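Quarterly update, task 2.4: adenosine-5'-triphosphate-bound model.
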Amino acid sequence: MTSTLQLTGLTKRFGPVTAVNQLSLNVAQGELLAVLGPSGCGKTTLLRLVAGFEAADEGEIRVGGRTVSAPGAHMAPHRRKVGVVPQEPSLFAHLSVAKNVAFGLRRGAERRAAECLELVGLGGLGERMPHELSGGQQQRVAVARALAPQPPVVLLDEPFSALDASLRGELRQDVREALAEAGSTAVLVTHDQDEALSMADRVAVMRDGEIRQIGSPAQIYREPADPWVAQFVGDAMLLPVRASGSAFLSALGEVATESGAVSGVPETDGRNAAGTCAPLALVRPEQVRLRPPGDGVPATVLRVDYHGHDALIVLSLGAEGTPGLMRLIDGPDVPVEPGQSVHVSVHGPVRMYAGTEAEAGAYTLD
Ligand SMILES: Nc1ncnc2c1ncn2[C@@H]1O[C@H](COP(=O)(O)OP(=O)(O)OP(=O)(O)O)[C@@H](O)[C@H]1O
């Protein structure tokens, strides 16, 4: 498939800080890619480089087959034809919603504005003024405005972060549909794993200016490339294990490996250079199940985080009190309470990583 956005060896430094480091990435025509990473990892800088608000120190950016940034060549933002949806909608307060969307368009502007408002679920609201809309509706206008000139690439910078949680879920899916219907190629920057996993075709996980892993949401969650990605995307336990015959034993009892293989932590990961190598098992909380007394390993319930559709149980495992997590997903009733003794076991195969004891300690739960 042809790539609408191609980044090659992109680097941006701010004094001693390398915000984006030799980053290469392709986004295919019509694809929605989420760039997911913690605060300060360089996500916004990456977006600003593509939009043209920052000049790259090294590397190349191609948009729709055109080179917009290369060593010594920096195309101005307005010439790149990249649509941007910022964190705050920043609409023109004195212009109607339709005029905001049509701003900068030439022929057929009115019709196109109406089409785009329809696309984001605001059909018929074109004559309103921005202050007559809710925050969520204003953000929809910002999306319609970015889509209106039919840019080859749309960039969305944490566009839902200022909204209530209840609004966010609905808006995410509506925006996703609007982008798909418009056939847009889009890059969404977010630190919110739910947002990245639920909206994107592919997720690029970023840390310290580099991409640690890129793949489908299911790949990122089920086959994280390293312990850091495993911990960053979703709740996870990384439990040291020791071999016992053909089985592996952990604080959660016996665990079965996916393939018997241990995934290597990337060699660039300096933390792994010293110390002994201890296999770590990645156990997701939904893999931990309650067992009848006498089965599984004993544990004590420390805390219950109730979410309605599920509940996260924080456990204390074994004599050492190793922390553990369990997710109950079978209904709104929680059959355990803090202080209760339970028995648990791990259901299904786990993924293994080569890690150090220190690393396992670093991933201990709160
Ligand atoms: N204009 C600037 N001048 C100096 N340093 C900067 C500038 N912009 C970003 N940085 C630094 O570059 C690094 C990456 O910042 P960036 O804003 O891209 O991260 P981010 O992942 O978007 O974070 P957040 O989610 O908090 O916005 C940080 O260390 C930041 O302090």
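Highlight for this quarter: The radius of gyration is 24 Å.
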